Amino acid sequence: MRIGLVGVGRIGAFHAATLKGLPSVDQVVVTDADVSRAELVAKDLGVEFAPSVAALLASGIDGFVIAAATSAHAELIAAGVAAGIPTFCEKPLATDLADSQRVVELVEASDVPVHIGFQRRFDAGYQAAAAQVRSGELGFIHHIRANTNDAFPPPAEYIPTSGGFFRDCTVHDFDIIRYVTGREVVSVFATGANRGESFFGQYGDVDAAAGLLTLDDNTFVSVSGTRYNAAGHDVRMEILGSLGSIAIGLDEHTALRSVESGVAFPGGQAHATFMDRFRPSYVAELTAFTEVVSGQREVPCTVRDALQAFRIADACELSRRENRVVALEEIGR
């Protein structure tokens, strides 16, 4: 199997190395808007290089992986669909809701499988939680707490193209909430603040945020996050049910310390980045994509799944800006 990849920044180079190591992948071909960078990554990894996206798509690849800048996602997905090549794209579909909806319409009008990269769906903890929730083992779920705390902020130049905190960061929480519960969000109330570097506020963004989501079965979900969590990269979820409560991400690497006397847990090294926290999940995710390419499985995270997560993020941003509860039905489908 030949897999082509566009975008060899941090996550793209990581994906290229992961793909090269998969038993089902015979060759990886990479390209990038920065041709010299793509050539360097190809040389370092011992994979093929293509001088352009057009050349990549014409090089006989079986699958197409998009890890380019968000602003290029919609166009690149369309190119993959036009070429009839099964496509994997990092979230999000596009930079705004209207373009995201157009991508969904394009993909759903075709027979080309398109898999969107929300890697938490492939984390063993979240998968086990989903099984327990859906089996009824926990009884009815009354509260969920989810957090995404980055150890350090991204560079200032990233913020204008990030889409904002909810679309860039907590959108992962929004997707995994839908995955674990099998429910839909019906309303949100969100807030945020800029307490660190001023460049967040300069671009209308925040570096800390929180939201209360109500699901369609009246489960309450609190979501919080920050760009400043020096203790380490901290992604967790607590699910509280009438018959039991469970946690995901609560292990020796959790970026917390207890001040209770005699308590040594957690005692391990905290994760520094999301790539540390979810390394096995990324491998499982790309393995799943190769199975999609070979026709062994259905797409595990569809463009419509990505659209729903984006709608929740848009609702939270609108709520933050207008300081009110926002119903999801207000946000275009």
What does this structure look like?
There is one protein chain. With 333 residues, the protein is an alpha/beta fold. The chain folds into 2 domains: 2-118 and 283-302, NAD(P)-binding Rossmann-like Domain (Rossmann fold, 3-Layer(aba) Sandwich), CATH 3.40.50; 121-273 and 309-330, Dihydrodipicolinate Reductase, domain 2. 37% of the residues lie in helices and 21% in strands. It is built from 13 helices and 13 strands. It has helices spanning 10-20, 35-45, 53-57, 73-82, 97-108, 124-135, 159-162, 165-168, 171-181, 199-202, 274-277, 279-293, 303-322, and strands spanning 2-6, 27-31, 48-49, 63-66, 87-90, 114-117, 141-149, 185-193, 208-215, 220-226, 234-241, 245-248, 326-327. The chain has a 7-stranded mixed β-sheet with strand order 12-11-7-10-9-8-13. A 6-stranded parallel β-sheet has the order 3-2-1-4-5-6, with helices on both faces. Helix 2 links the parallel strand 2 and strand 3. Helix 4 packs parallel to helix 5 (97-108) and helix 9 crosses helix 13 (303-322). The longest helix is centred in the last third of the chain and has 20 residues, at 303-322. It starts with a strand and ends in a 6-residue tail after the last strand. 44% of the residues are buried. The model has no long low-confidence stretch (mean pLDDT 97).
Keywords:
six-stranded parallel beta sheet, Dihydrodipicolinate Reductase, domain 2, Rossmann fold, alpha/beta, 333 residues, 13 strands
Give the SSE layout.
Blueprint: E1 2-6, H1 10-20, E2 27-31, H2 35-45, E3 48-49, H3 53-57, E4 63-66, H4 73-82, E5 87-90, H5 97-108, E6 114-117, H6 124-135, E7 141-149, H7 159-162, H8 165-168, H9 171-181, E8 185-193, H10 199-202, E9 208-215, E10 220-226, E11 234-241, E12 245-248, H11 274-277, H12 279-293, H13 303-322, E13 326-327
Parallel strand pairs: 1-2, 1-4, 2-3, 4-5, 5-6, 7-10
Antiparallel strand pairs: 7-11, 8-9, 8-13, 9-10, 11-12
